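ARCHIVE ENTRY
Sequence with per-residue tokens
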Amino acid sequence: MSSVSPCPADGVHHPQLAQKYDPQRERELRAWIEGTTGRRIGDSFMDGLKDGVILCELINKLQPGSVQKVNEPVQNWHKLENIGNFLRAITRYGVKPHDIFEANDLFENTNHTQVQSTLIALASQAKTKGNNVTLGVKYAEKQQRRFQPEKLREGRNI
């Protein structure tokens, strides 16, 4: 039996995306998120994140005050607003726009791989900012180079 996630909104299975989803990374992300927030995600990783509450709490732990109001997930729009607030907050935190999933990727279960990639990028950004994170990579700091004008002229003649 294939472990392809539910059909996305377009009704087409995307097995190449499902194959890139890494269950080991999910376990690592679960441990990090639960350890950071102190909240249990539940049996289904994506369903546990779907209302946006734990995600908002995560970014608020990494950068206090990032999401001012976390909605109790009574209706779907509350959940979508929480996810949107989380996505805006991680953009301000430094996660690059091309690394960020769209709200419906999580809310409608259409792209778990992108959600996972975003959370790994967030972990990397947190590690770069000095948080004790065991997954992701620490991003290199920008190295600004200043050359004297005569050195720049010499370089043109090579």
